[in-house]
Design goal:
2 helices, binds zinc ion, 28 strands, five-stranded antiparallel beta sheet, five-stranded mixed beta sheet, 3 domains, Jelly Rolls, about 40% strand
């Protein structure tokens, strides 16, 4: 067989495969699912499992995967192949959930895929999209079986059970390393609106903290404090529920401490303090790390450490530093650009590292 003939056969096969992919419509389905049914499906990244559902009544239902080994997702289409809804992940494992208000008598198609080259077989179930009041579902009357494993806040979806710790202002807690436990969660409901500081205390451990409010990431910190300690500074509102989530990457124990954000002066009086972010200097100005500032005493009580001078900058490209007037002719434009890029990338790297750690924590990877 000539190379040319072989090539044409391969091309033909590729085209046939492509055509079969392109023409695969929602009307071709792999299985049918009914309400309150659990079925087995097989899918990979390239092979979509299409599941047909005809809704008997107008109702909100949830399609959930069970014990999926890799991240999966599902898109819902109507009978005209119009996209309707996508699934969401539950943050701590690889399963997905899709909730939709189905209309009586209509036909729907769930397109399911998995981030896996190999085909995986797993269960999906279609059932009540439980909406709980005091642990009992408003829609089906079933009592919640209280599972907090699938929730980063250690809170059952029904809102009735929390399996983390509580912390009060003034408390210090010790976090012991536990290999099988990824996070420690501290719930806090302030009795007073104001600024609070949640910090770790340790000589060697490198913990990181995230603050969640209303199930959303609010703020976080890694290394503001001494050694590798975090300091989370946040304005919190009386009566609202906040969750401080901590994680340590070296299996070391550390203390956590929650206090009002105040400066206690030598005479015992308490002053309100402010959080100041990093200050980036130039060739003429020192860069300062983040700090806590007492306006009443006009001094930083924590942080705000010198981090060296910044760089010459030449925004108008006249070969002269805009800040110090020094001629930069000796220094090539490339050097200036590299200096600037260096500074820019360092800042970007900091942000990137933080996001990576956060994504890692919430289990997106
Ligand atoms: Zn229900
Ligand atoms: Zn529950
Ligand atoms: Zn002060
Ligand atoms: Zn300069």
């Amino acid at each position: 067989m000539t190379i040319r003939k072989l090539t044409s056969i391969i091309l033909t096969m590729v085209m046939l495969v492509s055509i079969s992919v392109i023409t695969a419509s929602a009307a071709d389905f792999d299985a049918v699912i009914a309400e309150n049914e659990t079925i087995q499906v097989s899918a990979s990244f390239d092979k979509t499992a299409t599941i047909k559902f005809v809704s008997a009544e107008t109702k909100t239902l949830a399609l959930k995967s069970e014990n999926l080994e890799e991240y999966g997702f599902c898109d819902l289409y109507d009978e005209n192949e119009e996209f309707l809804e996508s699934s969401y992940e539950n943050l701590v494992d690889t399963d997905f959930t899709l909730v939709y208000d189905f209309e009586a008598g209509k036909t729907y198609y769930f397109d399911i895929r998995v981030f896996s080259d190999e085909e995986l077989t797993f269960s999906i179930s279609l059932g009540c999209a439980h909406e709980y009041t005091d642990g009992v579902c408003d829609n089906c009357g079933v009592a919640c079986d209280h599972d907090t494993d699938g929730n980063i806040l250690m809170m059952c979806d029904c809102g009735a059970v929390y399996s983390g710790s509580d912390i009060a202002c003034g408390d210090t807690d010790t976090v012991e390393p536990e290999a099988d436990k990824k996070f420690s969660v501290f719930r806090f409901i302030p009795e007073e609106t104001g600024n609070y500081i949640f910090r770790s205390v340790s000589d060697e451990a490198d913990p990181i903290a995230y603050l969640f409010y209303d199930s959303e990431f609010y703020t976080g910190n890694d290394d503001f404090g001494d050694s590798y300690n975090f300091v989370v500074f946040a304005e919190l509102t009386e009566g609202e529920t906040y969750y401080f989530i901590t994680e340590e990457f070296n299996d070391m124990s550390y203390d956590v401490m929650l206090t009002k954000a105040v400066h206690t002066a030598d005479d015992g009086s308490e002053h309100d303090v402010e959080y100041h972010d990093w200050y980036y200097g130039t060739c003429q100005e020192i860069t300062y790390t983040e700090g806590i500032y007492c306006p009443e005493c006009d001094e930083y009580i924590e942080g705000h450490l010198e981090d060296g001078y910044g760089y010459h900058e030449d925004w108008d490209y006249d070969g002269i530093c805009d800040y110090c007037g020094e001629s930069l002719q000796g220094e090539s434009l490339i050097d200036i650009i590299f200096d600037f890029l260096d500074e820019f990338l360092a800042a970007l790297q900091g942000i990137f590292d933080f996001i990576i750690e956060l994504l890692d924590t919430v289990g997106v990877w």
